[in-house]
# Entry
Amino acid sequence: MDSVLLLHGGAGSDSALSPILKKYADSAIRERDVLISVVKAVSLMEDDITFNAGTGSCQRLDGTIQMDASVMTAYGMGSVIAIENVKNPVKVALSVMKESPHLIMCGDGAVKFARIMGFPEFDPDTEKAKKQHDRIVHDIMNNNPGGDERIEQFLKIRELSRFLKYGEDTVGAVGRFNGEFAAAVSTGGAAPMLRGRVGDSPLPGCGIYVGKRGAVVATGIGEEIIKRMLCFSVYERIGKAPLHDILREEVENFGDYSVGIIAVDSKTEASYSNRNMATAVSKLPE
Ligand code: ASP
# Structure
């Protein structure tokens, strides 16, 4: 049986980033285990400042950085929600899966768990994130004249987020090695957002789902993805239509909202987005 690894760089990401993803995919596929391989692929993207995950994550409206990540196979999962000051949230999610009695850890508990597991303190903030944050605050103020209460203004942002464009380069990977499936996701979230906001990425069935028939990862406006339980909806349909058609139909349900999906089933792999989306595939024969 063959091995395949499929990566995305976020709904809305520049397709010109695909060759970088290809390099990461070709490196990660050399890992023998499918779970370790998707984690490696995502951690390489977390370490690349270009992407909105790990180093390079976007800021919350209060200027802090909280990150979400998850990993999943047909037999288990691990996820971290709103974790701070770690370099690779996806590796902490793997630790939650493999070395804790839990499936999901959040906030300061997730940070404490990371320290116990030996993940050192790391500040993922960058000039890129600071500049983007300044632009967001400026755009919010410009579109809401007459007020300066940031949070109050933010409550109107749902409208604005339909047409304002910010960094959207969340990362994810799905893989199939010798019939075994795994997926991994990592994000700094969908700016603009409040501190404490949780997106789809760490939630099973929403931003990630893996079962015995395949692996699915989503990217885009988390709130809309959660409402539709997108990854589970895709997974449920695997085998009933060509994979690419399933992805296209599920994305079409999102109207204007930005969304992208990558998936593998027992024979094929597919990606689909209603925005540009950097992707890359790496394959090894039997
Ligand atoms: N889905 C992520 C979130 O809502 C963001 C993204 O994929 O761009 O947190």
Summary: The pocket of aspartic acid is lined by residues 10-11, 168, 170, 187, 189-190, 199-201, 207, 219-222 (CB under 6 Å). The chain has one domain: 3-124+166-284.
